[in-house]
Amino acid sequence: MKLERTVVNAENTERARRRWVTLPAVSTQVIVLNGGSSSGKSGIARCLQSILPDPWLTFGVDSLIEAMPRSSAVVIGPDGEVSAGPDFRALEDAWIQGVAAMARAGARIIVDEVFLGGAESQGRWLTALAGLHVLWVGVRCDSEVAAGREMARGDRVRGMAAKQAELVHQGVRYDLEVDTTATEAVRCARTIAAFLTTRSS
Fold first, then answer.
1. What are the average pLDDT values for consecutive 10-residue runs of the chain, which has 201 residues?
2. Which residues pair with 66 in a beta bridge?
């Protein structure tokens, strides 16, 4: 199954835009999507950008890793195990602070994250985002389904999706959870948008 690639097409995006164009402005400044590899976070983020009434920036941990020198990036083992050294953590902390600064400057931001440290990873974001209106969203997906997407994508080391499916949620507290196992990204995005509207009313 390649839900992440098939649901975010022009037709779905335009249909979502028409449905939510009258959404009132929301008070939330940052949406944090946390889920394992191939869980569908990026697809949800793109749909949210299309259906939310204000412009939102999207930043993901993958773009952070791509911006890093190879010597500082994470190491992915042949079985999909991901490990990060002190250089990565230092750059990641600076990046998190930078994202928070943009939100404080007025930008609305969607963060596409993978909390490999579970509650400890969320704690770093909680500290950086203190004082901001944040929506914490858990993006869940059955490990076998995520592994199937991983295989179809061909740009991930096999094993990452299965290892991260539950690991990233351990000890993490959410305002809302969505499950992409059998639900398209656009429907998950609509659920999040509806929650934001209710929260702001």
1. 35 45 71 95 97 94 87 71 82 96 97 95 98 98 91 73 92 98 97 90 65
2. none
CB 147 within 8 A of CB 181: no
What are the catalytic residues?
A: 62
pTM over 0.85? The answer is no
- Identify the CA nearest to 199 among candidates 21, 15, 23, 55: 23
Tokens found for residue 189: 């995005």
Q: Which amino acid is at 176?
A: L
For residue 134, what are its two tokens? 């944040």
Rounded-to-integer distance, Cα 171 and Cα 194, Å: 26
Helix (H, G, I), strand (E, B) or coil at 183: coil
- Residue located via tokens 């702001």: 200
- 3-state DSSP assignment of residue 184: coil
Which pLDDT does position 201 carry in this prediction? 65
Partners of 135 in beta bridges: 31
Q: What residues have CB less than 8 Å from 8, skipping those under 6 apart?
A: 43, 46, 47, 185, 186
Alpha-carbon span 114 to 63, nearest angstrom: 12
